[in-house]
Amino acid sequence: MKTISHWINGGYVPAGERRTHVTNPATGKVTAELALASVEDAQAAVAAATTAYPAWRDTSLTRRTQILFSFRELLNARKGELAAIVTAEHGKVFDDALGEVSRGLEVVEFACGMPHLMKGSYTENASTQVDIHSVRQALGPVAIISPFNFPAMVPMWFFPLAIAAGNTVILKPSEKVPTAAGWMAELWKEAGLPDGVFNVLQGDKVAVDTLLTHPDVKAVSFVGSTPIAKYVYETATANGKRVQALGGAKNHMIVLPDADLDLAADAAINAGFGSAGERCMAISALLAVGGIADGLVAKIAQRANALRTGDGLRGCDMGPLVTSAHRDKVTGYVDAGEEAGATLVVDGRTVTPDAEGDGYFIGPTLFDNVTTGMSIYQDEIFGPVLSVLRVESFDAALAVINANPYGNGTAVFTNDGGAARRFQNEVEVGMVGINVPVPVPMAYYSFGGWKNSLFGDTHAHGTEGVSFFTRGKAVTTRWADPSHGGINLGFPQNA
Ligand code: NAD
To answer: Which domains does the chain have, with CATH numbers?
Structure first.
């Protein structure tokens, strides 16, 4: 069986004694052994990033972005390989995995514009013969700690910008889905990235805690569940680091009485059950306003019953959950919803998956008549469980969303422009869809939630991502007289 280890200073290093197993969630089979970093392994990764930093920071922007372009070309040509790795370890169906890689690729493309994004400004004669200009500079080694549900895309929300801006990176992927990170490290090497600029540290809390407290790590980008995001934010900021820690979610979709119910039902299915509900932007609560609930629930149920659940490589609509423990947790929530008195319309516990072996499946599950006091409403289930809450009015629906402690994504389905406008204005959520169920912003906008869905000031990628991975400097200048000389008749070139 293969052993997956850390990628430090341009190559894989031997695995230490702490290990765990990686499984294929569609079959339940163990596919690899994974090294879990010791404190010394984590220190070695930071040391590699620290050593590589000065030369990388001083590498010209032209050369840095040329390497970004090469990485983009290689990734685009070989994205199917990465998607297959994602399907094998996460379980999401292949097309969905390909979509995740494409969304990550968008951030690489955005980061190729770093020469423009990092431009400073200049003011001549701010005072008599005094000029002032601003620059943005890299921070140093930065840590990226990512969750299991997007093994390729979430790291790519951060590292293309971090690297293009002149930082060096230590990526700590989720121990459930470790292979994608090493694969991307190999691709960086092929693209010409110097050794030590991008490092992968495999592991668990030991690796994370070392990164959060190490004095040479200057910034931390974290994505994961809310309790860990809060812990990461508090620990790393207490250790003097810049932190953006994206947490969990409970995303609501409002359907107003004037909406097209067929389009709304399609959207609820796609956003509720895509990636088996293991998306931070998944819709898990649907607020049906007025008298539309009976008709809408029937349409969603009909579509949910037609979905095929199984191995993501077999052309199914929905794959397994990531581990047996997580499947059992989600099943426990379905039991709890029934006990609490919600109406179970579609029961995913009885699914017969299209897969070999003993995978971690639960089919699409639909509850009606859910109330805000029930655990299926209150908790982030992170599985294919969609809860319909019946509410009297738009105001009541908005109040439910704004009272929720999370604020990652939300959507309204309506043909009423006034209602939609009021929704975007008043809803306390970071990413809003108007007739768009999964409103993940493009790479040139920033991704992030509000309230318990994000700790820190800056969102991921877009211009906020550029700000996060750089710091500003303002320079005030006075020269007594012109002193620049030298002759060169050649056409000016980048170097
Ligand atoms: P998780 O919090 O369990 O793990 C995230 C990372 O933290 C992993 O790398 C893990 O190894 C590490 N970690 C876990 N426990 C730790 C501990 N005690 N101390 C230090 N580090 C620890 O999250 P997950 O289950 O991998 O991912 C699912 C969660 O991520 C969901 O809550 C989901 O909403 C959230 N998520 C949020 C976003 C977003 O943009 N807000 C995006 C994707 C996922």
So the answer is: 3-247+453-476 (3.40.605.10), 251-434 (3.40.309.10)
